[in-house]
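G., the chain you wanted modeled:
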Amino acid sequence: MTIETIRYTADVVVTTTDGHVLLIERGWAPFQGQWALPGGHVDPGETSRAAAARELAEEAGLYAAPGELTQLGVWDEPDRDPRGRYITVAYHMEVIPGTPIEAGDDATNARWWPLDGLPELAFDHADILDAIRAAGTAGVTE
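Predicted structure as tokens:
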């Protein structure tokens, strides 16, 4: 019997009311230099929602109370991360255009991207964005 190590993460989709999404440029492997949603590991004793809010502040300088984040779903495909088995809970928050952001922690850049002009995304983050579009959330319909 093989024992699989499973890591728990949280990601955040921040959209603007005019159809942009916040992405960070990764400063570390895997996918160093590629664009991704803000997110990271859930710390011991922390909820995924609290981790999402913390990672958003650390990576993009955007502060939100955990209660401002709405859960989108769980992504758990076995091969979604080349480092091993990662399960993520993704959250959503909508903000007004022009909300200031600033790269920090393991992000080398933070930027608002139009949803109809996204770069290639790291991990399965394109799938996460597809899910929010399918949900018809304001500002992210195509």
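The domain at 6-134 is CATH 3.90.79.10 (Nucleoside Triphosphate Pyrophosphohydrolase).

Shout if anything looks off.
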